[in-house]
Amino acid sequence: MSTATADRFSVKRTTSLARWNLVLLTRNRLAFVYAVVMPLLPLLLLLTGDRGSETSGASAITTVFLVAGLFPVYYNVLAQFVNRRDELVLKRMRTGEVRDAELVASIALPGVASALAIAVISVPVAVALGQDLPVNLPLYLAGAVLTVVMLSAFAFWTAAWTKSAESAQLTSLPIILIVSFGPVFSSMSGLPDVLRDLAELTPGSAMGELVRIGWFGLDGLDATKTTLDFADTWSAAVGPLGVMVAWTAVAVSLAKRSMRWEPRS
């Protein structure tokens, strides 16, 4: 094999490694439950409110987004990368033909695929439970893609200062809290405007707003009824899309600068 061929990104190698990581994930029953079952449970919230309610639907689907992003993607990628690094698996693989980008992609792919599948499955499930079809399906899916890319990058960044898989339970908390509490604070009507505006700049709040706009056509955090059509949703989504793109760029930059392939001393 020529040097040029060996240096080229290989989709075949990446998918082969990703399948191996997926097998390891499915063998861990607890990790599998967190990756597949937990993200779908928030859909049960659709059974508690008024059937077809936009606000209940937006709350449930936003929670699905958050759980699918934080567990199958963020925490799973973080734990897997730290485990492989501490076992020197990554170091050994880098001495062969496998490129760094292939290792990164293969570790992220199982969780990313799970989260995106959940985002897609949520559509027919929610419709069966009384919700309308998304007003702008491409926008909804774009939010899902940005979410998994951003949280994958944050996982690799967090791994840089995580000493072991056990300590990941602590080092993951800052990102989990930022993502989880953003939608809560941004929707609190009694919060001072300055704090509410700051909360809207968090990735979790932007994710939730993309769900509200892309799926339900809700114009603003206080909206309770669909007022946006397909064309209107694009202009309404400029703000949250910009926030998500900015956070994704920051996450990717941090991950690239801090990537560690050997155990921390």
TrEMBL record:
TM region(s), chain numbering: 30-48, 60-82, 103-127, 139-161, 173-191, 234-255
Domain ABC-2 type transporter transmembrane as annotated: residue spans: 55-255
Where does this polypeptide localize?
Membrane
Q: Which UniProt keywords apply?
A: Membrane, Transmembrane, Transmembrane helix
Q: Name one GO cellular component term.
A: membrane
GO molecular function annotations of the record: ABC-type transporter activity
How is this protein situated with respect to the membrane? Multi-pass membrane protein
Q: Give the superkingdom in one word.
A: Bacteria
User: In its UniProt entry, what is this protein called?
Assistant: ABC-2 type transport system permease protein
